[in-house]
Amino acid sequence: MSLETDVLAEFRAAIGEQHVLTEAALLRACETATFPTTQQVFGLLQPASAEEVAACVKVAANHRVPLYPISRGRNWGLGSRVPSNHAVLLDLSRMNRILHFDERFGCLTLEPGVTFEQVHAFLIRQKAQWFLPTIGGPPDASVLGNFLERGDGIGPRAERTANMASLQVVLGDGSIIDDGYARFEDIPLALLSAMPAGPAFSSIFTQSNLGVVTRMTVSLARRPSHLQMVYAPIPDEHRVCTIDALQQLQTVIGSEAFLTLWNGGKLNARGQAMPQVDANAWFLSGALYGHSSLMAQAQKEAAIAALASGLPALQFFDESNLPDFQQQAGIYLGQPSTLNLQSLYAASQRTMPETPDPDRDGCGAIWLCPEIPFDGATIVRAITLCETILRKYNLSPILGMSALSSRTVRFFVSILYDRTAENADENAMQCHDEMQAALLAEGFYPYRLGIQSMNAVAPSPLLERIKAALDPKGILAPGRY
């Protein structure tokens, strides 16, 4: 399929000829992810405002042309910018303004094209007492895109949906709505809360195809006066009891901590372990965020009391005992890094270029993102399941998890491989499909899906009814969630 001349003319009239792109090489690049795809991209639209987005949506609705919104297209491992079904891409990267910053309350209003490195640099220039928890992905990833996909932050306030408000959304008929308190004119609450009286709608625009979000206010985390990094290898015989102790610790220290577990395969793949460690070993890492010396000491004592018996090599680092602490701690204070991207290139035994682009560079990567009860025996069972299936397909187990609450963990499974090897794509996809089925059979359902697995979970009948009301022509990201 190619766009009809009259449709192209209407899109060009709406946003300018130079922002309606149909070059074959560009469209092929847009159809490329880090795993095999068959979806076609018919064109690329680059609006610069909510009004231009609305104009594009109206044209698309009139001609029943499917649109697939992307913020910046850095959703590597989950589909990149490839649509879930054939579509025209609605690329929002030109909408890249930070619209408002409230220093007192720590909130930021921004557009879809604003990146994590852009926000970090802005807050440093402002000498702000706040930071935005960054991600393990690329520094030029979209903040709004990560929030809408319910990605994970590194640090306090890492649960994205709990820290967003006042969405501006373009619906499938081209109408523009303001969510939450933002629907009332010029009131301070619009920046501070997402919960006016009545039903709350913000979350239905996350991981959905119900509208195009063109603006959002996000809550920031306060910079701690005392940051402590935590690290420990986990003895194999103490895995279950350590995870259970970590769960109890999380109930005590709550959101002012960020704690993760990674296997040696992950540390080796991203070049973090020199010399390399046992790929099957597991490690605790993270940070404690203290806002006074007393609080920091109490956090450390709580961690020692909970973990030291099972982790004899438990260590705490700060400026007093780690010379490059500021550099090492940057990731915990909102400073984006390309460190995690190293693992995508390591699987192909290549050096990561200065400007990494795993799609362009032919990296093989597929993520699975199950959520698992925060119980030691259950988590170890999930680890064993994933390790067994990965090894069956001669793939390295590269696993990790983060504790955003005391009830569940977000589990990360990385299927990383060399796409140039014979039958590598087929092998990786078979591994993905078998592992996803096995996880579902155990009740470990995904908290996030890639385009390769949109049919993994049965659709909600209620969601289908809402979709019919908000996008009656069904043009927005068909096939997505």
TrEMBL record:
GO BP term (any one): lactate catabolic process
GO molecular function: D-lactate dehydrogenase (cytochrome) activity; D-lactate dehydrogenase (NAD+) activity; FAD binding
Pfam family membership, one: FAD_binding_4
Alphabetized UniProt keyword annotations: FAD, Flavoprotein
Tree of life domain: Bacteria
Alphabetical list of InterPro entries matching this protein: Cytok_DH_C_sf, FAD-bd_PCMH, FAD-bd_PCMH-like_sf, FAD-bd_PCMH_sub1, FAD-bd_PCMH_sub2, FAD-linked_Oxase-like_C, Oxid_FAD_bind_N, Vanillyl_alc_oxidase_C-sub2
Residues covered by the FAD-binding PCMH-type domain: 34-223
Family: Belongs to the FAD-binding oxidoreductase/transferase type 4 family.
Protein known as: FAD-binding oxidoreductase
Species of origin: Terriglobus albidus
